[in-house]
Amino acid sequence: MIWKLIVSFIIGYVFGMFKTGPVLAKVRGIDLSQTGSGNTGMTNTMRALGKKVGIWAFVGDTLKIIIPAFVTYFLFAKCGHPYPTGEHVCLFIMVTSFGGILGDMFPFYNGFKGGKGVSSFSGMVLTLLFLTCDWKFTVVGLIVFFTTMFVTRYVSVGSLVLIVSIFIEFVVWGQMDMIYSLKNPEDRIYIYIIVFIIMVLVFIRHRENLKRLANGTENKIGQKKEDK
């Protein structure tokens, strides 16, 4: 199974390197890397090209996780089992998503300088919904993100709290055997480690946001300033 997981990771990484925002900007004659903060994610795309284009950038960045997860699911995880069951389904989803998120954050063709991984992380959560019918992560994630963002008016805080909550949900629900596609005890440990690493990397990618939050200069929703 190891080689299948390695191939799944590589497939995820290749898809993850696709950057939706810069493509949408280039069609409009704009170099996103030279606009605003230079970030290639949804926030900078939205500020440079408008909300509608920013939403499409988010959709593209979630699909680049969802699509390869479907590919590896039908290639390796399903293994002839009826939907949505199959051997190690959750592990294949998470390994593929992990590769995709790393591809988004660290694309080799751009000197390993990429996005912050939040939209891609959302794609991972949606993949669990689509491939395993496990709605808990999506519903709780939406509640946590929008409630935090509404209260604080910081997108960055909402994103970070979301990712911490998903990690906690994986551990708690995993230990309570409440994740539909995660029944193998060994798989649980690997998945906890994967989600923890993703959480740490997202915090590292948001270090400038954290500094601005600490000194009170982080932009709130509605402020047309430098992208976070």
What gross morphology would you assign? globular
Termini gap: 40 Å
The total strand number stands at 0
**Backbone structural class:** mainly alpha
Pick out the low-confidence regions: none
What sequence of helices (H) and strands (E) makes up the elements?
HHHHHHHHHH
* Structural Rg: 17 Å
Helix content: 55-70%
What is the strand content? under 5%
User: Which sheet architecture does the biggest sheet show?
Assistant: none
Please, what is the average pLDDT?
87
Number of helices: 10
Explain this structure.
By secondary structure, the protein is an all-alpha fold. 69% of the residues lie in helices and 0% in strands.
Helix and strand arrangement:
Layout: H1 2-16, H2 20-27, H3 42-49, H4 51-77, H5 89-105, H6 118-132, H7 136-152, H8 155-175, H9 185-205, H10 207-215
Keywords:
mainly alpha; 10 helices
Provide a quick synopsis of the model.
The chain is mainly α and about 230 residues long.
